[in-house]
Write a structure and sequence with these properties.
Blueprint (H helix, E strand, L loop, with lengths): L1 E6 L2 H15 L7 E6 L10 H6 L7 E2 L7 H19 L3 E5 L3 H12 L4 E4 L11 H12 L2 E4 L2 H9 L6 E3 L3 H9 L12 E4 L3 H4 L2 H13 L4 E4 L2 H10 L7 E4 L4 H10 L2 E4 L2 H9 L3 E4 L7 H5 L3 E3 L4 H11 L15 H16 L3
Parallel strand pairs: 1-2, 1-4, 2-3, 4-5, 5-6, 6-7, 8-9, 8-11, 9-10, 11-12, 12-13
Helix pairs in contact: 1-7, 1-15, 3-4, 4-5, 7-12, 9-14
Length: 354
C-alpha cells in the first residue's frame, strides 16, 4: 500500500520521522511511503536540517509554497497537491497536526476520494480564533482514520460525533524523544530557562508580544530564546526591543532543542510540541497562551498557563524552579509509530487496498 505523507512545518518533520522509521522497520506490513513537502517551512534551520538529523526519507517533491497569507497559502497548496496526488495515485494520504499543510493535504485527498489518516487527531483548544483550531477540526471531519494521542483527544472526537476508526495510539512525539534524546546536543551549563515564541496569536499582536518579552526579562534566571523567523519579523515590524536579559539565538534544530531542554531548569513556550517535550524530559513548562490543547499537562501539575502577562510569567517562574514535574505520561508508552503502522495495514486489509 502506497502512503503519501504530506509535510511542511517543523513539528510535522519530527512526528513523521517516527512513523517513517516504523514503516521502514516493518517491511512485512507491506507499506511504502512517499513524502510530499509543501515548503511551508523552507529555510535550512526550519526544514532541511530536520530531514538530515532525523534521517527522514527525502521528499519526492518540494512545492516551495511559503510566506503567504493563510487562505492564499492553503489554496496554492491545494492546487499543487492535487496535481501531485493524481500523479502518485496513493492508496492513502497521511497528514500530521494542525498547520495549513495539514488542511491542504486533507482537502486535496478528500476531493480526489483518497482516504485520509490524521496523526494527532482530536486536539481542541476551543478557541476558534486560532487558525490551527480550524485546520484540526476540518481535518478530523475529513479523515477516515484518526490517530489520537490520549484519552482526552478521543473524547473530543466522540463529542463531535466521530467514533468510527478513531484510535488511541499514544503520542509520536514521545516516541521521538525516547529515540533521539541520546543524540541530544548538550552545550550549556548553569541555571537558565529556554523559551520559544512563534504562534500567530502572539506574534501578530504587538501588545502580547511585548508583554511576553517583558515577562521573559523578569524571570529570575537567564532566558535563552531561539528566535523563530516569524517572531523575528514581528519584532522588527513592531519596533519592539528585546530586553537585555534575554539571550537571542538562531532557531534550534531538534537535537539542539532537546539538548537545551535537558540543560535548562524549565521551559516557556507557546508551542504545543515543546510543552510535551518539556514534560517528557522532566521539566516544568509555562505556556505563553491563554489555553492549551494539551490539557492533561495542566491537570497533572506539569504546565501552567500564563498568557502574555509579564507578572504572571515572572510569578510562575518561581513555581517552575521549585522541583520537577510529576512523573509518568498520559501519552502512551513510546510505541505510537508502530501502532499507527499496524492500524494502517489492518485498514488496508479491510478496505482491500493493494
Amino acid at each position: 500500500m502506497l502512503v503519501a505523507t504530506i509535510l511542511g512545518a517543523r513539528p510535522q518533520f519530527i512526528k513523521a520521522a517516527v512513523v517513517s522509521r516504523a514503516i521502514a522497520e516493518a517491511p512485512k506490513l507491506g507499506l511504502t511511503e512517499k513524502i510530499i513537502h509543501t515548503g511551508q517551512h523552507f529555510d535550512r534551520e526550519m526544514s532541511q536540517i530536520f530531514f538530515e538529523e532525523l534521517e527522514i526519507p527525502q521528499p519526492v517533491v518540494n512545492l516551495g509554497i511559503a510566506g503567504s497569507r493563510h487562505g492564499q497559502a492553503t489554496g496554492r497548496m491545494l492546487e499543487h497537491l492535487e496535481t501531485v496526488m493524481l500523479d502518485l495515485r496513493p492508496d492513502l494520504v497521511l497528514v500530521y497536526g494542525d498547520t495549513n499543510t495539514t488542511l491542504a493535504g486533507a482537502l486535496a485527498a478528500a476531493k480526489l476520494h483518497i482516504p485520509v489518516a490524521h496523526v494527532e487527531a482530536g486536539l481542541r483548544s476551543f478557541n476558534r480564533a486560532m487558525p490551527e483550531e480550524t485546520n484540526r477540526i476540518l481535518t478530523d471531519h475529513l479523515a477516515e482514520l484518526l490517530f489520537c494521542p490520549s484519552n482526552v483527544s478521543l473524547q473530543n472526537l466522540a463529542a463531535e460525533g466521530i467514533t468510527e476508526q478513531a484510535h488511541i495510539v499514544g503520542d509520536v512525539m514521545y516516541d521521538a524523544v525516547l529515540h533521539y534524546k541520546k543524540k541530544a546536543q548538550r552545550r550549556r551549563n548553569g541555571t537558565f530557562a529556554v523559551a520559544t515564541v512563534h504562534r500567530a496569536e502572539n506574534t501578530d499582536d504587538p501588545g502580547r508580544l511585548a508583554g511576553i518579552l517583558e515577562g521573559l526579562a523578569r524571570v529570575s534566571v537567564p532566558v535563552v530564546l531561539p528566535l523563530h523567523p516569524r517572531t523575528q519579523k514581528a519584532v522588527a515590524a513592531a519596533e519592539i526591543a528585546i530586553p537585555g536579559p534575554v539571550e537571542v539565538t538562531q532557531p534550534a534544530s531538534y537535537l539542539e532543542m532537546i539538548g537545551l531542554i535537558l540543560d535548562s531548569s524549565f521551559v516557556l513556550t507557546d508551542s504545543g510540541g515543546l510543552q510535551k517535550e518539556a514534560f517528557f524530559l522532566g521539566r516544568k513548562c509555562l505556556t505563553l497562551r491563554d489555553e492549551t490543547e494539551w490539557t492533561e499537562l495542566v491537570d497533572c501539575g506539569a504546565n501552567r498557563l500564563v498568557g502574555a502577562d509579564p507578572e504572571k510569567i515572572a510569578a510562575a517562574a518561581a513555581w517552575a524552579l521549585d522541583g520537577p514535574p510529576p512523573s509518568g505520561t498520559p501519552y502512551g508508552d513510546g510505541r505510537a509509530g508502530e501502532r499507527i503502522c499496524e492500524l494502517l495495514a489492518a485498514w488496508r486489509d479491510r478496505a482491500g487496498a493493494s
